[in-house]
Amino acid sequence: MRLLALIIIVIPGLIAVLGVKLMRDALFGEFFFLFFHSIIQFIFGLFIFLAGLAFIGGFILHRDRKRNLTKGRFSRNRKD
Protein backbone atom coordinates (compact mmCIF):
# COMPACT_ATOMS: atom_id res chain seq x y z
CA MET A 1 0.00 0.00 0.00
CA ARG A 2 2.84 2.40 0.75
CA LEU A 3 4.43 1.63 -2.61
CA LEU A 4 1.22 2.60 -4.37
CA ALA A 5 1.09 5.89 -2.44
CA LEU A 6 4.72 6.56 -3.36
CA ILE A 7 3.99 5.97 -7.04
CA ILE A 8 0.95 8.25 -6.85
CA ILE A 9 3.15 11.04 -5.48
CA VAL A 10 6.21 10.47 -7.70
CA ILE A 11 4.43 10.63 -11.07
CA PRO A 12 2.86 14.10 -10.57
CA GLY A 13 6.15 15.22 -9.03
CA LEU A 14 7.98 14.25 -12.21
CA ILE A 15 5.35 16.04 -14.28
CA ALA A 16 5.86 19.19 -12.19
CA VAL A 17 9.64 18.91 -12.67
CA LEU A 18 9.10 18.65 -16.43
CA GLY A 19 7.04 21.85 -16.24
CA VAL A 20 9.86 23.67 -14.47
CA LYS A 21 12.30 22.42 -17.11
CA LEU A 22 10.07 23.62 -19.95
CA MET A 23 9.73 27.06 -18.34
CA ARG A 24 13.48 27.32 -17.79
CA ASP A 25 14.24 26.26 -21.36
CA ALA A 26 11.73 28.78 -22.70
CA LEU A 27 13.47 31.57 -20.79
CA PHE A 28 16.88 30.57 -22.16
CA GLY A 29 15.66 30.01 -25.72
CA GLU A 30 16.04 26.23 -25.94
CA PHE A 31 12.95 24.80 -27.61
CA PHE A 32 11.40 21.41 -27.06
CA PHE A 33 10.63 19.81 -30.43
CA LEU A 34 6.81 20.00 -29.97
CA PHE A 35 6.61 23.77 -29.44
CA PHE A 36 7.17 26.42 -32.09
CA HIS A 37 7.28 29.49 -29.84
CA SER A 38 8.81 30.16 -26.43
CA ILE A 39 5.63 31.72 -25.01
CA ILE A 40 3.59 28.60 -25.77
CA GLN A 41 6.29 26.41 -24.24
CA PHE A 42 6.41 28.58 -21.11
CA ILE A 43 2.61 28.61 -20.67
CA PHE A 44 2.40 24.83 -21.14
CA GLY A 45 5.24 24.35 -18.64
CA LEU A 46 3.51 26.61 -16.14
CA PHE A 47 0.24 24.72 -16.59
CA ILE A 48 1.72 21.27 -15.99
CA PHE A 49 3.80 22.57 -13.08
CA LEU A 50 0.69 23.97 -11.37
CA ALA A 51 -1.30 20.80 -12.17
CA GLY A 52 1.36 18.56 -10.60
CA LEU A 53 1.68 20.82 -7.59
CA ALA A 54 -2.11 20.94 -7.11
CA PHE A 55 -2.35 17.15 -7.30
CA ILE A 56 0.36 16.67 -4.68
CA GLY A 57 -1.24 19.30 -2.42
CA GLY A 58 -4.66 17.69 -2.78
CA PHE A 59 -3.22 14.27 -2.01
CA ILE A 60 -1.56 15.54 1.17
CA LEU A 61 -4.71 17.40 2.24
CA HIS A 62 -6.84 14.29 1.67
CA ARG A 63 -4.42 12.17 3.72
CA ASP A 64 -4.35 14.71 6.55
CA ARG A 65 -8.16 14.97 6.62
CA LYS A 66 -8.41 11.20 6.82
CA ARG A 67 -6.05 11.14 9.81
CA ASN A 68 -7.71 14.17 11.51
CA LEU A 69 -4.57 16.30 11.34
CA THR A 70 -6.17 19.45 9.90
CA LYS A 71 -7.50 20.70 13.27
CA GLY A 72 -10.81 21.78 11.77
CA ARG A 73 -9.34 24.40 9.47
CA PHE A 74 -9.84 22.41 6.26
CA SER A 75 -12.63 20.11 7.37
CA ARG A 76 -15.43 19.43 4.91
CA ASN A 77 -18.25 19.89 7.44
CA ARG A 78 -17.08 23.27 8.64
CA LYS A 79 -19.86 25.60 9.78
CA ASP A 80 -19.17 29.32 10.08
Automatic annotation (TrEMBL):
Keywords: Membrane, Transmembrane, Transmembrane helix. This is DUF2627 domain-containing protein. It comes from Aquibacillus rhizosphaerae. The chain crosses the membrane at residues 32-61. InterPro entries: Uncharacterised_YqzF. Pfam families: DUF2627. The keyword Transmembrane helix applies. It comes from the Bacteria.
